[in-house]
Amino acid sequence: MSDPETRLSTEEMAELSALADGSLPAERRAEVEARIAAEPELQAVLERQRRGFLATRGMAAEEVPASLQAEVEARRAALAAGKSRNRRWWPRLALAGASGVAAVVAAAVLLTGGPAAPTVADAARLATQPPTAPAPPRAPGSNTTLAVAVDGVAFPDFARAYGWHAVGVRAGRVGDRPAIVVVYAKDGRRLGYAIVGGSALSHPAGAQLSVIRGVEYRTWPVSGLLAVTWQRGGRTCVLIGRATRAELLKLASWPL
To answer: Which of 58, 64, 96, 90 lies closest to 77, judged by CA?
Structure first.
């Protein structure tokens, strides 16, 4: 079955997005809600839009990195000039505008694939959310890993080596793939470490490449935070938080 988003017009997608973030005019709300009620597959589209809005709303107080703002503006210009295949998202961007991190992050996510195409940006967003369960203990017989894993890929125990203590866990999904996030804390700062199940996700566009012991690491800004992504055991890993690029790379490349 094809994704319902592919058959929606730009105007219909704009209205669904506006309904998700509460900006749909009152005179249109009843008709749009009636259509969603009559077409269950549209309910899933609306729910994805709402999740994206809620994920970005909490970041609105963050300062927008100039590099991210410039990238989104360039992509907006490409859309307006008809040089992008993602034209169906343009009405939504026009509604959102370019002010505020929430709009910029939403634009970046939608322009790089959206909810129908899982990306490392989706994984990074999941990794910024708070934990929903207590921290896992250290894995039995190990000094370097925790007792939680995704498809056999275990999470590291950074406490002894670097002073980052696991403080909680969150399970979720990146598109149709299961994912787990372990949240670490140190000196009032937090890091989210996500491992996504299934085949590896595509690399983020424009990310800075580093190669450490033969492994490729890519760092890029996400809503005022810095993120790094790489592969372990064929699975996508993302580490994001208030840390320097050097610190993130040191933690990401720590041999388990």
So the answer is: 90
Spatial distance between the Cα atoms of 187 and 243, rounded to a whole number of angstroms: 11
Residue 216: partners with Cβ closer than 8 Å, 6 or more residues away: 209, 210, 230, 231
**Torsion region of 97: left, alpha or beta (phi above 0 gives left; psi -120 to 50 gives alpha):** left
Instruction: Name the percent of the chain lying above pLDDT 70.
Output: 66
Residue 11 pLDDT: 67
Q: Which domains does the chain have, with CATH numbers?
A: 4-116 (no CATH), 124-252 (3.30.200.100)
Distance between CA atoms of residues 21 and 50, nearest Å: 7
**Which residue do the tokens 């790089």 mark?**
112
Tens digit of pLDDT for each residue in 3-26? 555 566 656 777 777 777 676 777
- Whether the pLDDT of residue 84 is over 90: the answer is no
What integer is the mean pLDDT of 116-136? 89
Taking a C-beta distance cutoff of 8 angstroms, is the pair 207, 219 a contact?
Answer: yes
162, containing H or E segment: helix 159-162
